[in-house]
Amino acid sequence: MSKSESVGRYDGAMERELIRALIDRAQHSVLANIFGLLILIGMAFMVPFREALVVGILLRMTAVCYTGYNTGRIRMAITSGKPVTPEVNRFAWGMAWAGLTWGALLFVIPLQEMTSLSAMLIVSVVVSGVLLVAATASAVPQVMWSYFATFIVMLVAWLFYITPTYGMAPVFAVLGLGAAGISAASSLTRESNGAAKLIFENRQLAEKLTSLNAELEAIAEEKSHLASHDPLTGLANRRSFELFAENITEAGDRSQWSVLLIDLDHFKEVNDAAGHAGGDAVLIAAGSLLKSVANALPDQGFAARIGGEEFVLMVRGLRDSAVRDIAVSVNARLRVVPAPDGYDGTISGSIGTSRWADDEPIDRCLQRADRLLYDAKEQGRNRIVASQNDIPDLPYDPPLAS
Q: Is 106's pLDDT higher than 50?
């Protein structure tokens, strides 16, 4: 419902539940009314007062059609989230007209036919219709009493019409029946209100449970992410890296993978000069760089932060020369990472690369890469040192001739 549209008496959440109950019942009521009309149409071929009965039937048909039309409008308003109060008010006017048309059916019976079987059948149809409307409209008192008000006016007029001929007996019978009908309608109203309140509360509870479940799932997802990712750089953490290595071991293709161990040069000096905020900015930039490299590789490489300023990049299915090319690219891109305010040097990294042998755990491969990284530091930093043929390279697959 838009803010520009006014909220009326029946536009609250619980009131809309009552309206839903009303229109669900009204749909069945329309079908029952059509059945009652068919009975009356059949009688029109048999009674001597058929012309008057046809007029009464036509009036009832207008009421049934208008009820069906108003029911559709209310359903559309509820479905689209528009205010339903104007539609309910229109429906109440329609039910007032329905009450008049039901009462009009009593007047089609001539006085001399009041004790005939045809008259009793018409009265039975009217009584059934009244009770049906009471059951249908009880969810919304305004609608129900709009109907009863006009029907009672017609009923009182009819009683005045027949009393001179038949005395007070019909009056007492109708009063007893009316009292029973009003009592039943009031009980149905209370029952409808209670049922609507229960439905509304259950729906609210279901919505709260759905919202709570969504929150719990989001929290669990966030915890899972935090447990497997470095909160600063967004890269996988050491635990996630170890799980990734375990999966590779289980898959049995360790020799397809190479490890690049990367350590930022002079990082303590960066922290001392630029503070932890400056150091964090460098770590974030390095993490973003490695993430983009991993995502750009054909077999989706894997990047992780496994120490303070230490990162690992795993690549699959590449020969040693291609692995070195990636290391050169990473090293070159690290050098263009902006130095934080307060630090006058250049950001750079040292890299050790090694292929993962088929018969070794990941720790041994990391130790080898770490020794190569240490060699790079010893040789002056800002360089790459790769393992030298200690583990067989992948076979060379020449490109297919075009």
A: yes
How many C-beta atoms surround the C-beta of residue 348 within 10 A? Answer: 16
Q: Give the other-Cβ count within 10 Å of 137's Cβ.
A: 28
For the domain 238-386, what is the CATH code? Answer: 3.30.70.270
Model's pTM, two decimal places? 0.52
Looking at the chain, the whole-number percentage of residues with pLDDT higher than 90 is 39
Q: HSE of 383 in the Cβ direction (CA atoms, 13 Å)?
A: 11
Domain positions in the chain: 13-208, 238-386
Q: What is the DSSP letter of 254?
A: G
Tens of pLDDT along 271-308? 999 999 999 999 999 999 999 999 998 777 999 999 99
- In the set 5, 246, 309, 360, the catalytic residue is 309
Q: Is the four-CA dihedral 75, 76, 79, 83 of positive or negative sign?
A: negative
Question: What mean pLDDT value characterizes the chain?
Answer: 84
Told to judge if 215 belongs to the known catalytic residues of this protein, a careful annotator would answer no
In the chain, how many H helices and how many E strands?
Answer: 10, 5
Cross-sheet strand order for the sheet of 257-264: 302-305, 310-316, 257-264, 349-355, 384-386
CB environment 315-334: b (16+ within 10 A), e (fewer): bbebebeebbebbeebbebb
